Amino acid sequence: MAERHVKILIVEDEAVVLHTLQLILQQHGYEVRGARDGHEAFAVAPAFRPEILLCDINLPDIDGIQIAIRIKHEFPACRVVLLSGEISSAELLDEAKAKGYSFEVLAKPTEPQHLLNVLAAQKDQRPHASSGIHRVK
């Protein structure tokens, strides 16, 4: 019987970063699809059915939090890990929190091993954030 791989949808507008993340995660046994923006993510998600969404917050067409909310609506069991390199994301995160969404946030750039550790953490081992947003350090 073939081993089942966890499906991760990566949404990142920087081509080099997207490609690097895809390579790292594929090399560690994840099944990965990439998208450069929200519209591409929404086109890929229905057939791929991601278990984890790894999404940059600052994207050219739709912000990553809006993508995360829509993906969570379509796939409630999908875990969301947001990537942010900018402090301006705080306001968007506050909006998501006000709507009742709980997301994990990783600072960019993130060391590959740290990212792998975060993704490998079992759901019951992840910290519960009373604020609704867990900032992974």
Q: How many beta-strand segments?
A: 6
What share of the residues does DSSP label as strand, in percent? 15-25%
Mean pLDDT: 84
> In which order are the strands of the major sheet placed?
2-1-3-4-5-6
CATH superfamily: Response regulator
| CATH class membership | Alpha Beta
Please count the helical segments: 5
Write down the domain tally: 1
Can you describe what's shown?
- There is one protein chain.
- With 137 residues, the chain is α/β, with parallel strands linked by helices.
- It has one domain: Response regulator (Rossmann fold).
- 39% of the residues lie in helices and 22% in strands.
- The protein has a 6-stranded parallel sheet with strand order 2-1-3-4-5-6, sandwiched between helices.
- The longest helix is centred in the N-terminal third of the chain and has 13 residues, at 15-27.
Tags for this model:
137 residues; alpha/beta; Rossmann fold; 6 strands; globular; disordered C terminus
Question: Short description, anyone?
Answer:
The protein has helices at 15-27, 38-48, 64-74, 89-98, 112-120; strands at 7-11, 31-35, 52-56, 79-84, 103-107, 133-136. It is an alpha/beta fold and 137 residues long.
Question: How are the SSEs ordered, and which strands pair?
Answer:
Layout: E1 7-11, H1 15-27, E2 31-35, H2 38-48, E3 52-56, H3 64-74, E4 79-84, H4 89-98, E5 103-107, H5 112-120, E6 133-136
Parallel strand pairs: 1-2, 1-3, 3-4, 4-5, 5-6
Helix pairs in contact: 2-3
